[in-house]
Amino acid sequence: MLKALHISRMTGLLLALFISTMAHSQVVEFAPIQHQKLKKYNSTERNARILQGNTLPFWDDFSQGIDTLKWTVSGASYTETIGFNAPSIGMILLDGVDANGNPYSVNQADQGETDYITSKPFDLSSLSDDNSESLYLSFFWQIAGRAELPDESDHLTLQILNADGTWVTIWRQLGGLGIDTEIFTQEIVKILPAWQHAAFQFRFFSEGRQSGPFDSWLLDYIYLNDGRDNTNLDYKDRSLTQTNELRIGDYGAYPFALLKDNQDGIWSTIQNEFYNLENRFRAMEYSIAIRNSSTMNTTAINLNTPFNPVPNALERRSFESRSFEEIPVPKNETNLEIISSLTTGDGLLYEVDFFSKDTTFFPTVNYELNDTVSTSFPILDYFAYDNGSADYAAGINQRSGQLAVKYNSPEEVYIKGISINFTNPRQVNQAVDINIWKDLDEEPIFTREDLITIKEAGQELQYYSLDTNIRVEGDFYIGYTQYINDFIHVGLDKVNDTGDKLYYNVVGAWAQNEDVHGSMMIRPHISLEAPFEDPVAPEQSIRIYPNPVETVLNLEGRFSEARVFDSFGREIFLERQVSSKGEIVNFNGQRPGIYVLNLITEAGMQSYRILVK
Questions:
Q1: Is 38 within 8 Å of 77 (Cβ atoms)?
Q2: pLDDT of residue 563
Q3: What residue stretch is flagged as signal peptide (predicted)?
Q4: Structure confidence by residue, pLDDT tens digits, 595-607
Q5: Which residues in the chain come in under a pLDDT of 50?
Q6: pLDDT at 592
Q7: Where is 51: in which H helix or E strand?
Q8: Structural domains of the chain, ranges and CATH numbers in brackets
Q9: pLDDT by residue (tens digit) across 468-522?
Q10: What's 50's DSSP letter?
Q11: E-assigned strands of 353-485?
């Protein structure tokens, strides 16, 4: 748990939720964003499983997401990126917030049980004596990973439900600094005959601070079966362990308009990692392909390439595709599917009867499921450093503070919009300025006040369309200005580290980020053609000063009407008086922030941003 001046191991940053006063001079990384990925079934599979319930052998590596026919989940979430060196892709995260990211308590000192994942019932009442005595449950766990480290008083607990309906603790792991946060440890626990009954269940839960996403644990690769002993810790399984990595330069998404004319030398290789979970060597091959999700046309990059040398027992190894210069250019904007697969001979778990030599296959354990990984690479209308999903949130906590992300376009383009992943739903309707800079030492070339909007179901980022032509080439910067001292939460992808592209200004001068590792989810949307016809600008005869204003604002020039609106779009009626050159508007006593002044002139309505200090 976090103590008064405790420095978490999450990239060495101070947790912003409770010690924000110490973090004014830097960008701060918060704790993980909660995600849910549910395993998909067709109707036949789902109906069969509902009728059948959990049976032996039971196996779940979470490579397909959370299987709601196997588990009841309370607060636990799914992740592919928080853990290090997983046995297979996909794992379960348990921490101090529920599935919506809300803490279990608003009291910072409260401790107790937090996230749960509970198996659906098993009927173990009819096991033979031999099978009953050889029933074992194994699983992999990791402390913290890339998340916050549990203290030595925090726990990860395994319980079973006995025949009396009582939950009994059969295993517990304490937190603390002495445990390697990058290793998944495998445990195996005997399920005693006395615990076996017609409605057997087991569950994992975390215990720790209940006031935020702290004290984090990861679970993976859970296996319950008979015919085992306490040394049965390897599996006839070879797995892929992470998402596919593909970049164009530093980018995880690239504009279609720029791809079609120039691909030479811009593609990285495609990278992944395998893990051999069997205690013997295994010859195997890999294939990598890129598929157009619109047309389903596929380009093979590697096809049945042998691993050389042959993978050893229990070996983990990174691998990559061959180099390639270009792919067939899509006809339209699309998402490319990057598909990596292993050819291993993996399949259903089976056993051979000693006497009859008959072979029984178990469809509940299919080791082939984790042999293929598909990852999306958008070729749409935007640049992005991120991989499309926020692992954490990051931000600054300074009123009038600014945050910017550096991009580079190889040719002249127009920015038609900016998308930002504002992750905190409690900050909806908070005003921010959307900014574009050509040079951070100069004023923005575009600034407009907008609100953080409510996300629709499934929406990751909020999109802010521009209403004027903004042309850039080479380096440019996009970002926002905030007008509160609270942290504005913006999504952070931890897979691709482009922290050197992030800049912030909280004390009147720009600084390059050195603390947060990852990619902020702030993206420019571009077009080659001007989105708007440039209107002829009317002559300006209005003078407004001082801006920023603390007390009174002078309006000089010819106008017939003046109206003032606050940051939520509500008209406010301020004290005004006529002056020799126009009017004086009294902002004395108004809340600091952005206001909009609308003036009706001979040229039409003119809008002006007024910053009240």
A1: no
A2: 92
A3: 1-25
A4: 889 888 887 788 8
A5: 1-24, 535-537
A6: 79
A7: helix 43-52
A8: 34-233 (2.60.120.260), 240-380 (2.60.40.3880), 392-527 (2.60.120), 543-612 (2.60.40.10)
A9: 899 999 999 999 999 999 999 999 999 899 999 999 999 889 999 999 999 999 9
A10: H
A11: 359-366, 372-380, 392-395, 402-420, 431-437, 446-451, 462-482
What 3 state SS string does 194-261 have? HHCCCCEEEEEEEEEECCCCCCCEEEEEEEEECCCCCCCCCCCCEEECCCCECCECCECEEEHHHHCC
Per-residue confidence (pLDDT) for residue 53, from 0 to 100: 79
pTM, two decimals, is 0.82
Q: Tell me the C-alpha distance between 208 and 216, whole Å.
A: 9
| d(C-alpha 613, C-alpha 603), whole Å | 30
DSSP 130: H
Output the six-digit token pair for 589.
């006593």
If you ran DSSP here, which 8-state letter would residue 84 be given?
S
Residue 317 CB coordination number (10 Å)? 14
Query: Which residue is associated with the tokens 């200090």?
Result: 613
- The amino acid sitting at 150 is P
β-pair type (111-119, 201-209): antiparallel
Do the beta carbons of residue 518 and residue 499 sit within 8 Å?
Answer: yes
The residue behind tokens 């080791």 is: 367
State the burial class of residue 610 (Cβ atoms within 10 Å of its Cβ: 0-12, 13-18, 19+).
Answer: buried
Q: How far apart are CA 137 and CA 170, in angstroms?
A: 11
Q: By C-alpha distance, which of 256, 221, 255, 262 is closest to 238?
A: 221
**Helix (H) / strand (E) containing 605:** strand 604-612
Which residues fall within 8 angstroms of residue 368, CB to CB, at 6 or more apart? 344, 346, 347, 348
| Cβ neighbourhood burial of 290 (10 Å; 0-12, 13-18, 19+) | buried
**CA 253-258-262 angle, 5° bins:** 110
AA letter at 75: G
Give the helix ranges, DSSP H, for 53-158: 129-133
Contact 397, 486 (CB under 8 A): yes
